Amino acid sequence: MAKAKGVAPRLAEALGIILGTEVIPLRLRAWDGSEAGPSGAPVIEFRSRRALRRMLWCPNQLGLSRAYVAGDIDGPGDLFESFSVLSSVGKFAELKAFRPPTLSERLRLLTTAVRVGALGLPPAPPPEEMSVAKAGRLHSKKRDAAAVSHHYDVGNDFYALVLGPSMVYSCAVWNDENTGLDAAQEAKLDLVCRKLGLRPGIRVLDVGCGWGSFALHAAQNYGVDVVGVTLSKEQAALAQERAAAVGLSDRIQIRVQDYRDVEDGPFDAISSIGMAEHVGREQIGHYASKLHGLLRPGGRLLNHAISWNAGEMPPDPDSFIPRYVFPDGEMLSLTVMLGALESTGLEVLDVEALRLHYGLTLRAWVRNLEENWDEAVRLTSEGRARVWRLYMASSALGFERGLNGVNQILVQRPGGEDPPLRRTY
Known about the structure:
The chain is of the alpha/beta class. It folds into 2 domains: 2-115, no CATH class; 141-412, Rossmann fold, CATH 3.40.50. It is built from 18 helices and 11 strands. The chain has helices spanning 2-5, 7-19, 49-57, 61-69, 79-86, 90-94, 103-115, 141-152, 156-163, 181-196, 213-222, 233-245, 284-294, 320-325, 334-343, 355-371, 373-379, 382-401; strands at residues 27-29, 35-36, 43-46, 73-74, 203-207, 225-230, 252-256, 267-273, 295-308, 347-353, 404-412. The strands form 2 sheets. Strands 7-6-5-8-9-11-10 form a 7-stranded mixed beta sheet. Strands 2-1-3-4 form a 4-stranded mixed beta sheet. Strand 1 and strand 2 (35-36) form a beta hairpin. Helix 16 runs antiparallel to helix 18 (382-401). It is elongated.
């Protein structure tokens, strides 16, 4: 019976159960060559029976993601088009958690597995899935260090392929779609410098300094001294090399250090660009208080962070991004972030939303990855390259749909000079 009907229609039925929809606007291509779904729609290939087995044992977003990372499922065309269509149906469109299938649905899934020869034990998760960060207390220093290492210590050369020469791993600032990634990243770095009011001779702390791009820009163009801290050893090593290469080792100090252990304040200004997402809701108050204490009176803090814009329902902590990309990461709403900063006595000077800018940035990173695919696979693994492609493409759509935002919040510690009457940056 399965041979006469072909596998693809049965896959469509199973996928519909998992997604919670009767209509799947995708063309499904199965391992037996059969196809199902609208002609001309984006194609999703199920390359092996293991793809269905993963979905049966984990009938949610995580099961689908594991199948893609492992290469059991592929999208041979425009990945953005496929994801856009997929996100418009069922539980993806409703932003609902993937409820477990009912008993009746489980029986139908089991019947499908038997008929197409996909019944078996659960496949092991791809090796790129994170597990070590789950050991220990949430957001303890040891667990945070493991989570950061999982994400950032995958090879500086790999990140150079994706990020380009700027080596900036956060939202760029674009004049328009034709600006170009490197120019947009330089514009972002300079915008942060101007918001902070940097000038020669002052001392700056860069929390989550990455590969040192902000520190280099600030020291070279504004004559400041910068202390950068990161939990990634690979990031710190390259940041130190970059500073030495331009003769700025005496002005830029890079440390492998938790921000909670920084004790040599005060600083005249603090930048935190793409770091607060690692802090977590329970620690965000301590984060704000710690940075407040490291600022001199009158000093400014620029907090640049992704926000969760899609209502009260937080992202599922057991879904793809927490498992593969940002273990223990938490996107907080703008309201929560502002409240934490204000609760310490910091005065809000400015808030700028950059949501659409991040969509452009992520699409540029995906282009870089796809244009250098073979080299990216050689530097890491095919699974790791697939993780980053899936993560960046789906995230771009999330920003474009308004599910996520990214905001620069500029605050100042009272007690020093008054802020300017008008924004001069």
